[in-house]
Amino acid sequence: MNSLVTADYRRIAKIKVSTPMHISSGLDLEHSLLDQVLKGDAQCGYALWRSKQALVVPKSATHRENFEQACDFCETQGWPVVVRSTGGELTPQHEGFINLSIVLKCKKNQLSIKDSYQVICQAIIQWLGQYGIKGSCSSIDGAFCDGEFNVVIDGKKLVGTAQRWKKITDPAVRDDGSDMALLMHAVILCDGDLPSMWNISNAFYKTCNLKPFIVDNKHIALSQLLNDHGESFVLKMLDSLDVTLSKYIDDFSDEHFK
Amino acid sequence: MSNIPSELKYVASHEWIRVEGDGIVTIGVTDHAQDLLGDVVFVELPDVGAELAGGDEAGVVESVKAASDVYAPLSGEIVAINEELEDSPELVNSDPYGDGWFFKIKLSDTAELNDLLDAEGYTGLCESEA
User: Fold this and answer.
1) Taking 50 as the threshold, does the pLDDT of residue A7 lie above it?
2) Which residues of chain B make contact with A163, given a CB cutoff of 8 A?
């Protein structure tokens, strides 16, 4: 089912959008999810969604040399470039990828940036374990949007992550000045022609007079790991992750908000 | 333990405030905050002339790990921003209390200064996060 939005008595938002959407709509979706925490409508929640082909960059990229030219070039190649509000680096989006956005309310002193990355990475690692895939977190030199909280399989990047922190300012929602709303995002390389994505990403960097650094063999897709592919495979994985996430976020809520 | 200068004031969202006189204060993020964020790659600051209330969003810091809002700890008008951060955001990491300052506010109510944490209070806050 598309656009399934629920919030139960524990105020947990759960959203799944199976049909690939324009990347701007996807980013709007995760911000609406974050707004639910900022407004006190949800204590935590998640959204699973898919995007049509695009490149997503952080705001820092907009100050790079030839940024507009790089955007124009990528757009002509069928890869529109959109700016996102989470940190990190350039990330491709594709119909074959699954996006997971998790939001939660927390105290500034309750959860560090590292701790919160563990929340989203462990959810994914737990899910992968159901398929006999052993994931872990580490940096991969040559991977897109590299960081120590990639989810990697045998030294190859399967998942990229980023996050955004906002202070809860509504007096009706916050207990004190340390209440934060946290958005964590993960993109899971489920299926698709990965080399073409690294080619366009590297072309973006090159146009910005930066050294292209993304190396194809530093990545792996779920389709390669599970020897399956195509739209039905992506949908199957999306539904499976939804089941795991639903329980994971319920358990998280019971542990932290009861 | 991170560096917490005794002459500055602080807020729980990890901004520091230096009282400059004439109702003007300088704002930045603390050593503790920059350490949590990791390498800062971009800082978006408010426009000079903007009127902000205490607690309003005043900008965004992007690091290699995360993006986080910066808040105006006090109410007033933005009278200066650190334009050097556009080309050298790493100053936030290397000199958070000096060249890595963010913006200056002309206070609309100096009584708000009384609500700020001193170094001892902020140290206690940081220790509770450790």
Assistant:
1) no
2) 65-67
